[in-house]
Amino acid sequence: MVSKARKAELVAQYGRNAKDTGYLPVQIAILTEDIESLKKHFQVNKKDLHSMRGFMAKVNHRKALLSHLKDENYDLYLATIKALNIRK
User: Where are the alpha helices (DSSP H) in 21-73?
Assistant: First the structure.
């Protein structure tokens, strides 16, 4: 889970203002932070299949948000994936 303080940092970094939590790059950044922390969890706990289901839901949600952002604003999409280092 992403802490409140870390979420506030991500909103400040990727949002248009400090309370802009609905902005697509902010949502993608928060999901990415959550996904990265879960990756570390699964390296230690390989048999935790119950949490893997939630992990896959987060990955699919991020994928859908990225697809929507790509269709709506391609330049912002490129900037977001570059800033978050999502795709090579």
Answer: 24-44, 49-72
Question: Do residues 48 and 55 touch, judged by C-beta distance below 8 A?
Answer: no
* pLDDT tens digit sequence for 42-81: 999 999 999 999 999 999 999 999 999 999 999 999 999 9
> First-to-last CA distance in the chain?
25
| Percent with pLDDT over 90 in the chain | 92
Are 34 and 58 spatial neighbours (Cβ–Cβ below 8 Å)?
yes
Structural contact between residues 69 and 28, judged by C-beta atoms closer than 8 angstroms? yes
**Integer Cα distance of 84 and 75 in angstroms:** 14
SS3 12: helix
